[in-house]
Amino acid sequence: MISAVDMMPTLCDIVGIDHPQGFDGYSFAPILRGGKLPNREMVYKVYNENSGGNRSPMRSVQSRSFGYLFNPWSDGKRIFKTATTGTLTFRAMQKLATTDEAIAARLKLFQHGVPEEFYDYEHDPDALNNLIDDPKYSRQLAEHRAAMRNFMQRTNDPILEVFEQRDDATRRSAYVDRVQAEADARRKSKQKNKQTQAQRRRNARLFQLAIPKQAVAGDKLVVTIDHKLPPQLKTQQFHVTLKDGSGKRIERVVKSASGQGQLQVTFQVPDNPELTALSVSAFVGEDYPNNLLHRTEGPVSVGK
């Protein structure tokens, strides 16, 4: 039996790369070359959430003949959400379900699931007949549940406690509520970061800062700001600061501007023989903690 966790070690063998530590699977490259693999009686399957952050945690163990599935997300109310709901097949099922009872039942199972499933894949490869309550399969079901428990214990699966109390619908629902809240918070944080990054890219075009390459002690230094503020920003303040070589402020000038244009700020360079370098910083906004864009140029060498 082959599992998805075998793919990476197999690819490593094919291209001749040593296996990194920590693989759960093993290479099936020997089969591709006509050889054999160590005997494996069961494979395990883990699903937590889709790329949209919708949590529908599931666990499964499959032997050569049977398959057991644990679906803590299923409470009769939650709807399973994946990219498959946008396919032509799913849409066709929705349409046919209005007149076909068998398809309606299949669609209901797909969307709402059941907490546990057990199938005889050898005689029911399409998994149409759930045997979870069939006493004739109680021994096989117990074996697969025990294998599932052992796997969860070995892998420190956070869902183990819920599995042990799988008959408690309230605990199952509370677990899924919690992990869904975590996923929602993570997704919200990612969206916020994306928005922040996009805003920073837009803000990077608000102004450019130009300063001379050299300055003269006791003379004037003219700083030029070319700005392009969008209409929604209205009038903004530009805070322009002249600093010495150590970054200490010498003078700050604040000017207001809107739209597209140019500002010039003139500083008097101190007549100080110890002053050998300058820099200029500028930001736009009401204050530095909430600035829209900050730029620094320099150093500028100071001569006499």
Brief synopsis:
With 304 residues, this protein is α+β, with helices and mostly antiparallel strands. Helices cover 30% and strands 29% of the residues.
Task: Draw up the topology in text.
Elements: H1 7-15, H2 29-32, E1 43-49, E2 55-62, E3 66-70, H3 88-96, H4 101-112, E4 116-120, H5 138-154, H6 160-164, H7 169-203, E5 207-210, E6 214-216, E7 220-228, E8 236-244, E9 249-257, E10 260-268, E11 277-284, E12 293-303
Parallel strand pairs: 6-12
Antiparallel strand pairs: 1-2, 2-3, 3-4, 5-7, 7-10, 8-9, 8-11, 11-12
* Proper CATH architecture of the largest domain: 3-Layer(aba) Sandwich
What is the radius of gyration computed over CA atoms, rounded to a whole number of angstroms?
A: 33 Å
Overall pLDDT metric: 93
Secondary-structure element pattern, one letter each: HHEEEHHEHHHEEEEEEEE
Distance between the termini: 82 Å
The total beta strand count reads: 12
Instruction: Give the total of domains.
Output: 2
Q: Your description of this structure?
A:
The structure is a single chain. With 304 residues, this protein is an alpha+beta fold. The chain has two domains: 4-187, Alkaline Phosphatase, subunit A; 207-303, Sandwich (Immunoglobulin-like), CATH 2.60.40. It has helices at residues 7-15, 29-32, 88-96, 101-112, 138-154, 160-164, 169-203; strands at 43-49, 55-62, 66-70, 116-120, 207-210, 214-216, 220-228, 236-244, 249-257, 260-268, 277-284, 293-303. The strands form three sheets. Strands 6-12-11-8-9 form a five-stranded mixed beta sheet, with no helix packed on it. Strands 1-2-3-4 form a four-stranded antiparallel beta sheet. A three-stranded antiparallel beta sheet has the order 5-7-10, with no helix packed on it. The model has no long low-confidence stretch (mean pLDDT 93).
